[in-house]
Amino acid sequence: MLNKFLRYACWFISPVLFGSAPLWASVPGESAYIFNSLLFLIGGFLVMWMAAGFCMLEVGLVRTKNAADICLKNILLYSVACCMYFLIGYNLMYDGVDAGFIGSFSIWGADDINVLAEGAVIEGGYAASSDFFFQMVFVATTASIVSGTVAERIKLVPFLIFTVVLSGFIYPIQGGWKWGSGWLDTMGFADFAGSTLVHSVGGWAALTGAIILGPRYGRYTADGAIRFMPGSNLPLATLGTFILWFGWFGFNGASQLALGSAADAVAISNVFVNTNMAAAAGAISAAMVTKFRFGKVDLTMTLNGALAGLVSITAGPDTPSIAAAIGIGAVGAALAVLAVPLLDRLKIDDVVGAISVHLVAGIWGTLAVPLTNGDASLGVQIVGILAIGGFVTIASTLVWLMLKVTVGIRLSEEDERKGSDLAELGLEAYPEFGSGGSILP
Amino acid sequence: MLNKFLRYACWFISPVLFGSAPLWASVPGESAYIFNSLLFLIGGFLVMWMAAGFCMLEVGLVRTKNAADICLKNILLYSVACCMYFLIGYNLMYDGVDAGFIGSFSIWGADDINVLAEGAVIEGGYAASSDFFFQMVFVATTASIVSGTVAERIKLVPFLIFTVVLSGFIYPIQGGWKWGSGWLDTMGFADFAGSTLVHSVGGWAALTGAIILGPRYGRYTADGAIRFMPGSNLPLATLGTFILWFGWFGFNGASQLALGSAADAVAISNVFVNTNMAAAAGAISAAMVTKFRFGKVDLTMTLNGALAGLVSITAGPDTPSIAAAIGIGAVGAALAVLAVPLLDRLKIDDVVGAISVHLVAGIWGTLAVPLTNGDASLGVQIVGILAIGGFVTIASTLVWLMLKVTVGIRLSEEDERKGSDLAELGLEAYPEFGSGGSILP
Amino acid sequence: MLNKFLRYACWFISPVLFGSAPLWASVPGESAYIFNSLLFLIGGFLVMWMAAGFCMLEVGLVRTKNAADICLKNILLYSVACCMYFLIGYNLMYDGVDAGFIGSFSIWGADDINVLAEGAVIEGGYAASSDFFFQMVFVATTASIVSGTVAERIKLVPFLIFTVVLSGFIYPIQGGWKWGSGWLDTMGFADFAGSTLVHSVGGWAALTGAIILGPRYGRYTADGAIRFMPGSNLPLATLGTFILWFGWFGFNGASQLALGSAADAVAISNVFVNTNMAAAAGAISAAMVTKFRFGKVDLTMTLNGALAGLVSITAGPDTPSIAAAIGIGAVGAALAVLAVPLLDRLKIDDVVGAISVHLVAGIWGTLAVPLTNGDASLGVQIVGILAIGGFVTIASTLVWLMLKVTVGIRLSEEDERKGSDLAELGLEAYPEFGSGGSILP
Fold first, then answer.
1. Would you call A26 an interface residue with chain B, using a CB distance cutoff of 8 Å?
2. How far is A231 from chain B (nearest CA, A)?
3. pLDDT at residue A9 tops 60
4. pLDDT tens digit string along C170-228?
5. Is A29 at the interface with chain B, CB within 8 A?
């Protein structure tokens, strides 16, 4: 009792003596170091797990003849992204950006963060390699977004080469503009966990890829009709959505970047709640929009609605009230659902709807930050969206085009009909499940 | 060495000076605050993940023609439950129950917990929103239990309306009786993580739904035979069980509600061990019962046995020895397995066995608490089971009946034969996997 | 500001006064206790989740007619392993090994760790039951490795009896040699998280089982050809690989066994990074080896390559630089891929490739430790590999042979053709998915 009284008393008194944080009833420096590192590790393994979520979502939404190929792409793109980010990307993004446009270029440079991690104990307040791990899995997320859009027709090798460039150069350069303390950060651009820096970037890269690749054969018929090509395994697509939702707690929560104080714990808890509510509101919103617009509730759209809600809240999950988070998620999901027929009218063939989810909702989420965050300005948010959008679009277009004229990016029509599993891997994803064909046209 | 000696010395001496907990070698107040909040967040994301577990379990146990529909129901019920609990439920359960029967009614009231979270740093010892997050995902668990039982024949919209009432009103009101410090808590009712408050509640709601809906067409033939309708994707059902087992560490472990002291760490660790052993014993027990009773080891029953073991230990995972936890899980699983033919004899059609798992084992687990917990009394446990069972049964019956006479709750016979996927969503879950039909009668 | 200065000042000064760790700016004893326990709990639930990974990997790689059976085996083996380890194994491994060969034998002995956990607060620096939980899920991993290799032809009951002996006796006895401070530990054998103690052990047990069981009917034809029997659900095999990768952060990270200091946080973070990079390099390496050796990138081999990378780094994830971790993982994956045709030439039928992944890469990883860890010696590593390999091979062979001559271990040819699902369980895993048969020969 006395003990409890003393502890509370110290809590009140010590800020008077020492400034904002009391020294001895507060978190000791080494404990804060552990908390901060632990946050990166927990957040990191949750975000790593999102790679499985993208894989399941995509494998559920492609046709069986491309299912093994999309699995292979997903595990390899994650692997390639991690290696490239280590080799080149990390230093480009974080080493000496200094309010500028690009960090340092050095191969293997990031290895120091491991070797020297112990020496950095005091300076950073967290294990350097825990931060590196967390940043690394973010890159993989960006790369994962692309694979779904360009599925069912892109060749494996050029896809992986694109991933090399995206994760080694494109993502880290623009990432440094904000998170590496580059020029956008100096301007005050707000993007808490990456509605723009991660999701829109993946979306722009996917969009350019989809346009340059062209639609799947038979998707848009000569008479202007759109042929629906249903996903082959909706339970796996649902599982993928749940995995992504689950992993997003790490994605947004650990983007607080610190757990060493009570204020951090509060902020992260608020982020968890708002992340969850935006996703829930997104799912409900998408279900209602499809019900009233198309007559039936659509499962795939509902899944994408939850994801669009998550993307929308990602730019600023720390400042909204719960009610505001619900609104942000609901609007983002509605926009994403409505963008799907729009893309189809433009004959942009997005197999899993990733452009609608990650680009459209990503832009919306970034624009919505000033609604609840007084430190953000709409003008700067627009500058950030345009600058990053412009850079990624131009860079991605160049890479896709170079790949197109050199190694070629698209399967032959025959291979596309046969399916990329047989054409590229020489096997089937489900060799014993008779292909009964869809009952839908 | 000296340092180590000093630290241990302080450990021993300081309780003498300060009372039970030493002030400066112990956990500082702010560190405890972070630990407590972190426990809620980790526990919360694990319980959120259980929503995916229920979804996979159920989609694996329904027939393919209802697989997409059950996925849609699962993601929407989670979303609806979160929103309703925020809007109304949280305050009903926690705000001013005061040894009584119901908390305060106020729409959006729970938003304060987010906005004001920072101000509550000292009082509560944890971030208010971390606790809210943890409580919110519990509601979703309750709602998830219902969907499996009433699958394959209930319409989407009335199911969601039932979820609205369950998560906004029925669950929170009875939840407040114990966890909101209501009358049952005053009496000394013991339910650590919700064998009764969560699992039985879902079970009673499912039972009333199954009775009012009636069995699936063809399930019980005129001559008294029972037609077995095998699950379509047992690997996914197995995955779902593993997800639930995994998530249950958060469900039971974080129900300790604090990680700010060594005693909490010990308690949570014991809870983890007992939770795991009860599940293991449940799986083995169910496998043996099916082997000796039906001649073959049954996979679905074994999965349900693991879950029944988990439900059984949930009321009191903190007090049993490991051997006792094994016993509690094994008995619970045996009871759940034996309840399945009993329900069939009563022509209560439970598609996934959720009534046996969550209601039967939930009651057993609640009754078993006094065996290892001296603070619990069998009489009070029975009062709690009856009071909550009575309330939920009556309230659920009213809601189901009102839905039946207004919007209707059941698919037409034609739609049921066609499957809810085509009837309600206009699509198929596995459009390319030829429906070869079961070889079983 | 002053506060920050004081905190840093104390950090620098206090080591001078107290030795290596400053007393009051450092982690208080009770906080360290919580951190240490929390590490075991988080690591433990991640490793438990690996059981689901093995299950999904294996169910994806067997044919549909054996899919339900492998699910049943996986959930039961986990359950049996936990119970046996509690009943007998834990004490054999940890109680009084004292530089010797075996701990104490006592049934139920481990229950003390629960009952007495509270009393052990000061001594151990962590909750005894948190450590027990972590050690228990490791045993289950060992048992999981065996089931994949011997799938599609072994009977359920003898498989489970083998699991009883493996998890109750074989694993704990050899585990005590190193982790129970037995003779190998005294010699200086280095195996951070169990490339040898866990993975090779599972591999040796699987190898002896595969030899004694013999290959599946039709696998090796009379004219020396090898009939490829493709996995039935590659998306689930991919999911299983992702689950294992995810869980491995707990497997390797929590094997640091402490999180109570900044140095621990750094070490664990380094382990996370190296674990991830070895897996990524393994996947890429296997993809490239299959591309250049067999002409096409193989999905199953790529999945196994990631796993082989993980197994390879497990013996020493704490000391390599990131670049070295990449090398260790890449070599391990290449060796595992190249071992597959070798085993086939010896007519050793390994359904999922577990011997290549866990035994071959496990040996490589153990041998690679001295490359980056100055405290390890190649000679001692070889002694450890041979001693454990010899012991497990002899013990497993005896058990398999005893089972063969008593209850019999192999399905009849008719049952094997029909599939273990129908033969042993009387059901089908996917009753509605027409078995169209593979298009591959």
1. yes
2. 8
3. no
4. 999 999 999 999 999 999 999 999 999 999 999 999 999 999 999 999 999 988 899 99
5. no
Q: What is the DSSP letter of C62?
A: S
CA distances from B194 to B126, B303, B353, B395 (A): 21, 20, 19, 19
Contacts of C61 in chain A (CB under 8 A): none
Cα separation of C147 and C163, whole Å?
A: 9
Of A86, A92, A87, A90, nearest to A105 by C-alpha is A92
The answer, for A31 touching chain B at a CB cutoff of 8 Å, is yes
User: Which strand (E) or helix (H) includes residue A131?
Assistant: helix A128-149
Chain C: partners with 3+ C-beta pairs within 8 Å: A, B
DSSP A170-231: IHHHHHHHHTTS-HHHHHT---SS-IIIIIIHHHHHHHHHHHHH-PPTTSB-TTS-B-----
Per DSSP, the residues of B83-146 read: HHIIIIIHHHHHSS-TTSS-----TTTTHHHHHTGGGGHHHHSS-HHHHHHHHHHHHHHHHHHH
Compute CA distances A303 → A249, A279, A353, A364, C4, whole Å.
17, 10, 10, 18, 47
Give A81's contacts (C-beta < 8 A, 6+ positions apart): A136, A139, A140, A142, A143, A163, A166, A167
Residue C26 distance to chain A (closest CA, Å):
5
Rounded to a whole number, what is the distance in Å from the CA of C127 to chain A's nearest CA? 18
Q: Is C273 within 8 Å of chain A by CB?
A: yes
Helix segments in C346-360, DSSP class H: 354
Nearest CA to B200 among B340, B392, B349, B339? B392
pLDDT digits (tens, 9 = 90+) for B298-323: 999 999 999 999 999 999 999 999 99
Residue C435 is given by DSSP the state B
Three-point CA angle C74, C76, C81, nearest 5°: 95
C419: number of CA atoms within 13 Å, CB side?
Answer: 18
Interacting residues of B12 by C-beta distance below 8 A, sequence separation 6+: none
Burial class of residue B181 in the structure, from the number of CB atoms within 10 Å of its CB (0-12 exposed, 13-18 middle, 19+ buried): middle
Distances (CA, A) of C89 to A5, B283, C110: 47, 20, 9
User: Strand, coil or helix: what is A433?
Assistant: strand
Q: How far apart are CA C242 and CA C57, in angstroms?
A: 9
Q: What is the pLDDT of residue C28?
A: 81
Q: For C345-398, what is each residue's pLDDT tens digit?
A: 999 999 999 999 999 999 999 999 999 999 999 999 999 999 999 999 999 999
**Alpha-carbon gap, residue A103 to A180, rounded angstroms:** 8
Put simply, the answer to whether C75 touches B302 (Cβ < 8 Å) is yes
Backbone dihedral region for residue C105 (phi beyond 0: left; psi -120 to 50: alpha; all else: beta)? beta
Query: Distances in Å between the alpha carbon of A253 and those of A289, B41, B140?
Result: 29, 10, 21
- Which amino acid type is present at position B191? D
* Per-residue confidence (pLDDT) for residue A209, from 0 to 100: 98
Residues with Cβ within 8 Å of B139's Cβ and at least 6 positions away in sequence, in order, are B81, B82, B84, B85, B89, B167, B171, B172
Token output for B2? 């000296």
Structure confidence at residue C6 (pLDDT): 43
At position C220, the amino acid (one-letter code) is: Y
Query: Looking at the partner chain, which of C1, C273, C279 has a beta carbon nearest the beta carbon of A133?
Result: C273
Q: How wide is the angle at C-alpha A80 spanned by C-alphas A70 and C247, nearest 5°?
A: 80
Task: Quote the distance between the C-alpha of residue A214 and its chain's center.
Answer: 24
Is it the case that residue A24 has pLDDT exceeding 80? no
Packing angle of the helix pair A67-84, C299-314 (nearest 10 deg): 40
Residue A338, CB half-sphere, CA atoms under 13 Å: how many?
12
Q: Alpha-carbon distance B297 to C147, whole Å?
A: 17
